[in-house]
Task: structure prediction
Amino acid sequence: MVEFEDLDKETVRILRNAFTAFESPEKKGVIMANDLATIVEMLGHRLNDQQQKQALREADPRNSGELDFESFAVYASRYVEVEEDAEAVAKELREAFLLYDRDAKGYITVEVLRDILHELDDKISSGDLDLMIDEIDADGSGTVDFEEFMEVMTG
Result:
């Protein structure tokens, strides 16, 4: 059986993002166990009814109805496919950047980046977006070049 300590940083990062999206508004550090199948589906794997029941037995052996991050991560890690090919990631990000850099100027505006980030997570508050943009555009130029964009998208 996989232990939490055995999970690599990228897998934990991916799972933390998924967990946070389903965490209760009170931020109690748990998700509802019945959200597990939905999260696994978001990771690209559909569980049938029998597999869902088995997943709940494995991830929530006490049948509490809640999963803390560690229990969730240990179970869900088997469904995470970490992209190992940094060159492929860079190529995909370059193509995405070029879609937004329509005039081929070598940069996008912070307003465009704000729209992209909002599309990726529509629950980000305006204040959080402002903080992210300020950090990304540290020189205050109002633009983001590909290297800055890549840093944002890959963390």
